[in-house]
């Protein structure tokens, strides 16, 4: 597996009353080819903004103020506007949460996919149509020939999301960014879409950056997981290790508060308090206002990155302290 | 459903269909069959979860009970009164006893009204509290009860976070001292960590005040935590109902099985597996013939597309405790006749 | 008859001033509105000052009383009720045209009574153009304000009623709207004014009746949307009576639309009066009529340009200021800016 995407020290900020608020703060991760990396967090954690930053689609007046986003060694932040346009929908494609709002309601879905193909490949109408039909078949749309001429309102939510996936795959992207791809769908349809994404990833070797709040979906699809809280990464680990042995108190709290895990009749362990708004983020560890295990330095000093094992990273003073000898503790 | 106490709420054959009108004269050309033949009981202090996917009619049932929709037929027996028979004025009075909490806490609060006024609004309309000061004190007391700072009562909804807003909605419902609260996807829009807080709060309130809940949701994991009984709906009809434990351990209807299997597990040792059912939910304006689920069912039989299955009683897995709910599937009929024969 | 009209005008003016004070107090009490007002002020200071200036002029021209006319003034009837503005310009009437700041008459070259004191010159009858332009402010405010006061309540009653209660009433309103919308507006206007006779009030009524349709559509659609929102359902579940829901939950959430529509409608109405004046059925003393009258003067040689310039500029500055304020109001009151904070 080769290193496909390398994000280093990414900072995305929006202007605020007090200057600039960093919605995404010092986020670094890698995405290898053929890998599924899940970016997990609650609303306001900055996970979607991280994805938009990669595509340089941060809504105005926000902007990326620091960091590197290297696609096979070249920094996307240095790309010209037209180069960037070729990357979007070309080498990196994205699918969104609401398939209904992403499709133009007055154009047949087949034509919309063909248009996407036409933007990146010089091929004729007939070939484009044939390719679209193949794509529709590949993403499991029944009777693809007939569906080419269907309008979005004639399709169910699940089929619309399949069309979106077909559109995203039409240019054979190396990276697929999936932003909450199943949140708007029913559970039984969600299971189908997850299975589809998993098959596509295996057959095509596309790397997927999966953005979600649902740890169940993470477990279904991801190879590695990066957990975000209030704009910062708190823990990065392989799926199995993260779910069976979470190190950061936030990850632990998140896992415990899922109702399905607790036996019926027992009170749910909850994380107290609310996610602070970006203007009220603490100086130190962002989770320190809600953490049950906080101690002296937590509120004031942001914890350093610790690597308990070679493939895990965690940002927590408690983990930091236990993994080093007291003398060697550097602040 | 083995309680001897008379139920707080009893639904009998509730039917709410929406007309599809077309053309200049607005002629009715068809019906969206949102809810058909829905029957269930909720005992005092108990929680019934109404579960299903979008378009199954669960929300319609909840709103029909409060007569926010107009059911065509059926009986909604609440504390011995048929709500559907009441005059508009008596219905207004009955609403004090049944309240509703919606999914999106932002949409369910008026953005241009202080939360104190919104909480007190129901009290005012039912004449609770002697004067403004008395109501103010009550608002403060209720806010404290759901862990909201009473000092914030003069603020506007946009100054609160999603979880806090949902607490405000809960306070607003509690302010009129209801016996039954309809929770319509009330925790679905919340983050997991906040969801746990609200679920715990709902349960504490139930323990302290003896409230009953009709908990409408698509999320089965929440159901297991909160509900005593479960009713599963599909395309306007209840396909299976029974005690929560039996539904989760031995689901009888193929649709319930599929729903349960579709929940992504967070057990790192379990992953993958084929999706339990294919296809999407058909449109409720043109539901399939016979058993509505036969188009997606993995164990479909010939008769399923021709005959409409009634609700068959389901006996427990051990077969000892008698009836354990009902299932609208011919397979249940077979197992019933087997156990009889 | 004459006695009555100036007393009525005085009391209406007083009522309006009191209403403004009341609105200001309400705005001051509600943080949402107070913030909006503060933001508005910081964004459009100049335009707000300009609008306030016009309103002051209109106010000065609305308070009238009798008597107190010096003996030597012969242009006015000794018993006529004169406004503050009239009194300020007493005795400025010349015999004929004067150019701005001129000391002699434009054509006759005779000496003026008040040389160099007519900054915008005088018209054919020797009336000071500055005075006429200032007097136009009251007429414009009357046309814009009074007509909006007729059109907006009409639109609200029909629009909110149709949207909230639906059914037969909705069908009726929709029929009414479609019928009105299919009659050419100008034709209907002219017909109404002809039927009611000329005069400020009948022009206002005619403009009001023809201009509420668009806003009615808007309120109907918005009410349909609001009616389905959960907080309205919650209020119904809380046993709040329907009419109270409309007053407490629907109308306040339409308030931003009402304010924006009022401002935009205002400038549109003042402009349409100018069109009516050009057709000869405008309101006496309006800028529209001055512009219409200035048409003939443009054909004189040497040209009489100050009439048209002064009235046109007065109209233009007011409309520009009002539209600029309206634009800012739209930004400030956009409900999305209320919701996406926190």
Distance between the termini of chain A: 35 Å
Q: Give Rg of chain B in angstroms.
A: 21 Å
Largest interface: A-B, 48 and 48 residues
Major beta sheet of chain A, specifics? 7 strands, mixed
Low-confidence stretches of chain B: none
Choose one word for the global shape of chain A: globular
- Pattern of helices and strands of chain B: EEEHEEHEHHHEHEHEEHHEEH
Q: What is the count of helical runs of chain A?
A: 12
CATH topology term of the largest domain in chain B: Rossmann fold
Low-confidence stretches of chain A: 325-331
Overall structural class of chain B, as computed from helix and strand content, comes to alpha/beta
Mean pLDDT of chain B: 88
Helix content of chain A: 25-40%
Mean pLDDT of chain A: 88
- What spatial order of strands do you see in the largest sheet of chain B? 6-7-8-3-9-10-12-11
> Strand pairing plus helix content of chain A: what structural class?
alpha/beta
Query: Would you count the extended β strands of chain B for me?
Result: 12
The ordered string of helix (H) and strand (E) elements of chain A is EEEHEEHEHHHHHEHEHEEHHEH
CATH architecture of the largest domain in chain B: 3-Layer(aba) Sandwich
Q: Reading side by side through the largest sheet of chain A, how are the strands ordered?
A: 6-7-8-3-9-10-11
Features of the shown structure:
heterotrimer; A: 331 residues; alpha/beta; Rossmann fold; 2 domains; 7-stranded mixed sheet; 4-stranded antiparallel sheet; 12 helices; 11 strands; 33% helix; globular; disordered C terminus; C: 342 residues; mainly alpha; MetI-like fold; two-stranded antiparallel ribbon
Descriptive overview:
The complex is a heterotrimer of chains A (331), B (341) and C (342). Chain A has helices spanning 47-54, 81-87, 99-102, 109-120, 125-138, 144-147, 157-169, 187-204, 215-221, 239-244, 249-256, 317-323, and strands at 3-16, 19-32, 36-40, 63-71, 74-75, 92-95, 175-179, 207-212, 224-229, 232-238, 313-314. With 331 residues, chain A is an alpha/beta fold. Chain A folds into two domains: 3-91 and 173-328, P-loop containing nucleotide triphosphate hydrolases (Rossmann fold), CATH 3.40.50.300; 99-172, no CATH class. In chain A, helix 4 packs across helix 5. The longest helix of chain A is centred in the middle third of the chain and has 18 residues, at 187-204. Chain B has two domains: 1-97 and 178-263, Rossmann fold; 108-175, no CATH class. Chain B is 30% helix and 23% strand. Chain B has ten helices and twelve strands. Chain B has an eight-stranded mixed β-sheet, with helices on both faces. A four-stranded antiparallel β-sheet of chain B has the order 2-1-4-5. In chain B, strand 4 and strand 5 form a beta hairpin. The mean pLDDT of chain B is 88. Chain C has one domain (2-92, 128-339): Orthogonal Bundle (MetI-like fold), CATH 1.10.3720. The longest helix of chain C has 37 residues, at 129-165. Chain C is elongated and about 80 Å long.
């Amino acid at each position: 597996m080769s290193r496909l995407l390398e994000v280093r020290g990414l900072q995305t900020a929006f202007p605020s009353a007090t200057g600039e608020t960093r919605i995404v703060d010092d986020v670094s991760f890698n995405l290898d080819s053929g890998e599924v990396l899940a970016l997990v967090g609650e609303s306001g954690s900055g996970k979607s903004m991280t994805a938009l930053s990669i595509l340089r689609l941060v809504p105005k007046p926000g902007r990326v103020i620091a960091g590197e986003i290297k696609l096979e060694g070249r920094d996307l932040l240095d790309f010209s506007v037209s180069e960037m346009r070729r990357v979007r929908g070309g080498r990196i494609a994205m699918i969104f949460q609401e398939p209904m709002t992403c499709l133009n309601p007055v154009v047949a879905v087949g034509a919309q996919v063909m248009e996407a193909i036409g933007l990146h490949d010089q091929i004729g109408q007939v070939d484009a149509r044939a390719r679209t039909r193949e794509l529709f078949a590949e993403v499991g749309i029944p009777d693809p020939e007939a569906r080419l001429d269907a309008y979005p309102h004639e399709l169910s939510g699940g089929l619309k999301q399949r069309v979106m996936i077909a559109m995203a795959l039409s240019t054979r992207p190396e990276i697929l960014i999936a932003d909450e791809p199943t949140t708007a769908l029913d559970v039984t349809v969600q299971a189908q879409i997850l299975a589809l994404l998993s098959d596509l990833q295996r057959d095509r070797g596309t790397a997927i950056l999966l953005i979600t709040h649902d740890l169940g979906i993470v477990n279904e699809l991801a190879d590695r997981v990066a957990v975000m809280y209030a704009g910062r990464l708190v823990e990065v680990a392989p799926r199995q290790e993260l779910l069976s042995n979470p190190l950061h108190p936030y990850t632990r709290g998140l896992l415990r508060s899922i109702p399905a895990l607790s036996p019926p009749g027992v009170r749910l362990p909850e994380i107290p308090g609310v996610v602070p708004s970006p203007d009220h983020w603490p100086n130190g560890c962002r989770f320190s206002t809600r953490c049950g295990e906080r101690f002296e330095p937590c509120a004031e000093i942001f914890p350093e990155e610790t690597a308990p094992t070679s493939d895990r990273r965690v940002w927590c003073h408690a983990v930091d302290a236990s993994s080093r000898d007291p003398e060697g503790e550097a602040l | 459903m083995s309680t001897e106490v008379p139920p707080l709420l009893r639904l009998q054959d509730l039917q709410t269909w929406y007309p599809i009108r077309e053309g200049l004269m607005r002629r009715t050309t068809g019906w969206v069959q949102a809810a058909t033949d829905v029957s269930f009981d909720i005992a005092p202090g108990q929680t019934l979860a109404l579960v299903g996917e979008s378009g199954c009619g669960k929300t319609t049932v909840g709103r029909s009970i409060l007569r926010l929709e107009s059911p065509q037929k059926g009986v909604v027996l609440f504390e011995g009164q048929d709500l559907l028979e009441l005059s508009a004025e008596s219905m207004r009075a009955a609403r004090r006893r049944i309240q509703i909490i919606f999914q999106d806490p932002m949409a369910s609060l008026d953005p241009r009204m202080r939360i104190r006024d919104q909480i007190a609004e129901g009290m005012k309309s039912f004449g609770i509290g002697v004067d403004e000061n008395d109501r103010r004190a009550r608002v403060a007391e209720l806010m404290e009860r759901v862990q909201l700072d009473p000092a914030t009562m003069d603020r506007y909804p946009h100054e609160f976070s999603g979880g806090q807003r949902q607490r405000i909605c809960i306070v607003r419902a509690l302010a009129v001292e209801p016996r039954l609260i309809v929770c319509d996807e009330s925790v679905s829009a919340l983050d997991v960590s906040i969801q746990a807080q609200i679920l715990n709060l709902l349960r504490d309130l139930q323990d302290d005040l003896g409230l009953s809940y009709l908990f409408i949701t698509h999320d089965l994991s929440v159901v297991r935590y909160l509900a005593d009984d479960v009713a599963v709906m599909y395309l306007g009809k209840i396909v299976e109902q029974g005690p929560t434990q039996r539904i989760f351990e031995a689901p009888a209807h193929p649709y319930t099985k599929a729903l349960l299997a579709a929940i992504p597990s967070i057990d790192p040792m379990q992953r993958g597996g084929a999706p339990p059912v294919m296809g999407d939910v058909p449109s409720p304006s043109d539901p399939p013939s016979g058993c509505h689920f036969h188009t997606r069912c993995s164990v479909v039989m010939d008769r399923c597309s021709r005959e409409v299955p009634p609700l068959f009683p389901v006996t427990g897995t051990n077969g000892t405790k008698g009836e354990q709910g009902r299932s609208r599937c011919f397979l249940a009929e077979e197992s019933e006749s087997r156990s009889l024969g | 008859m004459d006695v009555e009209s100036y007393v009525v005008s005085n009391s209406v003016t007083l009522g309006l001033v009191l209403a403004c004070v009341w609105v200001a107090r309400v705005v001051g009490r509600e943080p949402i509105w107070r913030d909006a007002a503060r933001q508005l002020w910081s964004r459009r200071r100049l335009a707000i000052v300009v609008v306030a200036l016009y309103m002051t002029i209109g106010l000065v021209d609305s308070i009238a009383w009798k008597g107190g006319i010096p003996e030597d003034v012969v242009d006015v009837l000794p018993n006529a009720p004169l406004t503050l503005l009239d009194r300020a310009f007493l005795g400025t009437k010349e015999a004929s045209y004067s150019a701005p700041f001129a000391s002699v008459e434009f054509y006759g070259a005779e000496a003026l009574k008040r040389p160099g004191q007519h900054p915008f010159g005088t018209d054919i009858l020797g009336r000071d153009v500055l005075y006429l332009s200032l007097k136009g402010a009251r007429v414009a405010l009357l046309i814009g304000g009074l007509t909006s006061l007729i059109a907006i309540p009409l639109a609200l009653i029909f629009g909110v009623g149709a949207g909230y209660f639906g059914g037969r009433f909705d069908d009726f309103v929709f029929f009414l709207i479609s019928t009105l919308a299919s009659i050419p507006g100008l034709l209907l206007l002219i017909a109404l004014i002809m039927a009611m006779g000329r005069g400020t009030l009948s022009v206002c009524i005619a403009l009001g009746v023809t201009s509420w349709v668009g806003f009615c559509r808007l309120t109907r659609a918005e009410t349909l949307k609001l009616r389905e929102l959960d907080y309205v359902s919650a209020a119904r579940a809380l046993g709040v009576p329907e009419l109270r829901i409309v007053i407490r939950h629907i109308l306040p959430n339409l308030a931003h639309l009402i304010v924006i529509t009022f401002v935009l409608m205002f400038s549109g109405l003042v402009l349409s009066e100018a069109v009516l004046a050009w057709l000869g059925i405008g309101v006496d003393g309006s800028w529209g009529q001055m512009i219409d009258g200035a048409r003939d003067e443009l054909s004189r040689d040497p040209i009489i340009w100050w009439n048209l310039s002064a009235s046109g500029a007065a109209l233009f500055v007011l409309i520009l200021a009002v539209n600029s304020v309206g634009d800012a109001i739209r930004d400030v009151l956009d409900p999305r800016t209320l919701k996406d904070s926190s």
